[in-house]
Amino acid sequence: MEAVPRMPMIWLDLKEAGEFAFNAAVKKSAVSVPRDFEGCSTLRKYLGQLHFLQSRIPMGNGQDAAVPITWTEIFSGKAVTHEDIKYEQACVLYNLGALHSMLGAMDKRVSEECAAGAFTYLRDHFPHSYSVDMSHQILSLNINLMLGQAQECLLEKSMLDNRKSFLVARISAQVVDYYKEACRALENSETASLLGKIQKDWKKLVQMKIYYFAAVAHLHMGKQAEEQQKFGERVIYFQSALDKLNEAIKLAKGQPETVQEALRFTMDVIGGKYNSAKKDNDFIYHEAVPALDTLQSVKGAPLVKALPVNPTDPAVTGPDIFAKLVPMAAHEASSLYSEEKAKLLRDVMAKIEAKNEVLDQFMDSMQLDPETVDNLDMYNHIPPVLMEKCAALSVRPDTVRNLVQSMQVLSGVFTDVEASLKEIRDLLEEDEAQERKLQELLGRVPPAPGSPPGLAEVSKECSKYLELHEKASFTNTELHRAMNLHLGNLRLLGGPLEQVRAALPTPTLSEDDKQVLQNLKRILAKVQEMRDQRMSLEQQLREMIQKDDITTSLVTTDRSEMKKLFEEQLKKYDQLKVYLEQNLAAQENVLKALTDANVKYAAVRKALAEVEHKWNTTVQTLVASYEAYEDLMKKSQEGKDFYTDLEGKAAKLLERARAACQASEAHRQQLLERELKKQPPPR
């Protein structure tokens, strides 16, 4: 339809409050609320605070603090009194639904679902014996009326939005279904007797709406048939819509002018559609017009629902003004809930610890350290300890030359000492040989009296020096060997860094080896990810349990509902438990994959271990050469000092040896001349 005519809606009167021994200011604001959404908010807050109050103070039926509470019954106008705070709540809840119905009947056409929600909560959670207007039959009637009117509002919007014809037809059919339920309740004799005079007015309006919205439904089914070019069906649907609208017009006698205008407008639309469709089919399409009962009936689409009411929702009630009043029973229930939480945590932790123990033992047996299983990166850099030595030598470029020069000086002094001692030894040996010749010539063994005494001392001292030199010679040889061993390494450390890097061993891996290594690293990363996720989930669970305090909810919950509340509250941990279960279940597959990867990694691991050993040995050798430099220089200097001193002593001893040998030779000449004089002249 080009425009959407509106039908009037049914709304409910608010109950009037009577006597209630409560704070006058609170009572006034709660029972004399403005007829707007602010009034709905006030009623919700008051309802919530009443709920908080009843959970702390025994004001229920037959309890110690119960006081008389009076409200007026809607239909009879009689005052009804009960000593039960739940009666106050029920009446406030009724007024909340009635106020929403009033707002929904206004021009904005909203709030019907809220009214249905309030009446549904009242029907399902409170006794039906308080008063006639809150009986089960009346509340069910109210719910169907509100849902029907809510669906009616949705229908208006759907037509204004030009939604598809079939959808509009289904929405309209559902309006009919809701109103039929309401009409059945209105036709019930018991309900009729409870409602009194108002029953006839409501019944007449609802019956008229049933036919009206059935006509709207068939109008849009005809429009759908037109879209599908089913011109015979279009005619029968439009005819049915016209018939139902005529029935609605008959039932609309006595209704206000707005209803009559809506019906006339709709008649113009449907009548025009029917005449046009019939004419087109008779003269153009000539399709057979099926019987209505041979076509599929329109099934309603319930797109509205009673909005749930939560009387203790803090977003609605505001702060609990009785929060500091916590009954002992609530504390006891809180302790029981804490034990339930502790049990949950124990169960989860037992599973986690069992899996962690298996994982730790498995990883220890594998001896796979994720940090070092792939140490290829270290071969791309000179280690810091070696860089430090290279840097130290770079500021002392003469290191190698100084060491070589020092050893050369030491060798020179060593040679000089060795030459001096050799000459002394040769002089002594020559003197000894001359002495033997003289003894053989003279024919006597003991030395001749008057021999120079200095040679014996020289010989003794020479033997001493030779012994020192022999010992020092071994040390000198070791020193030279050590120098030759470290000299090349020192030259390397003092040279370009590229040469140092090139001197360090590096592994050579095939593409297959690299793939094996990459796969192992990936699985080890999965293991670590599994560990981290497990720890995170455990921490989340502990923090969640620590912060989980439902004392406020326990205060407002009946003892018989505690177990159910515990079950509902513990459901908040279900998702976290599912994540943990998935994590724990994944461990078996991850470890199996790691075992397979480790088998393939064995050969690569051996090759990498050998190269790493060579690499470490080379680094240690180079570092040792650097650290040996100072020691070599020190020992070289000590050797020079020793041989310089020994050289001086050897030089002096050589002079003494020469002098003693000369004196010994002169003495032998004297002896020889003397012996020649004693011999007789030849014949």
Fold and architecture overview:
The protein has 683 residues and is an all-alpha fold. The chain folds into 3 domains: 1-162, Alpha Horseshoe (Serine Threonine Protein Phosphatase 5, Tetratricopeptide repeat), CATH 1.25.40; 168-303, Serine Threonine Protein Phosphatase 5, Tetratricopeptide repeat; 342-442 and 453-513 and 608-676, alix/aip1 like domains (Butyryl-CoA Dehydrogenase, subunit A, domain 3, Up-down Bundle), CATH 1.20.140. It has 20 helices and 3 strands. The chain has a 3-stranded antiparallel beta sheet, with helices on one face. Helix 12 runs parallel beside helix 20. The radius of gyration is 58 Å and the shape is elongated.
What is the percent of helical residues? over 70%
Helix/strand/pairing class, anyone? mainly alpha
Number of domains: 3
Query: Can you say what the CATH homologous superfamily of the largest domain is?
Result: alix/aip1 like domains
Low-confidence stretches: none
Cα distance spanning the termini: 184 Å
The CATH architecture term of the largest domain is Up-down Bundle
User: Could you tell me the mean pLDDT?
Assistant: 82
Q: Which CATH class of the largest domain is shown?
A: Mainly Alpha
Care to count the β-strands? Answer: 3
Largest sheet: 3 strands, antiparallel
Radius of gyration over alpha carbons?
A: 58 Å
CATH-defined fold name of the largest domain: Butyryl-CoA Dehydrogenase, subunit A, domain 3
Query: If helices are DSSP runs of H or I spanning 4 or more residues, what is the number of helices?
Result: 20
Strand order of the largest sheet: 1-2-3
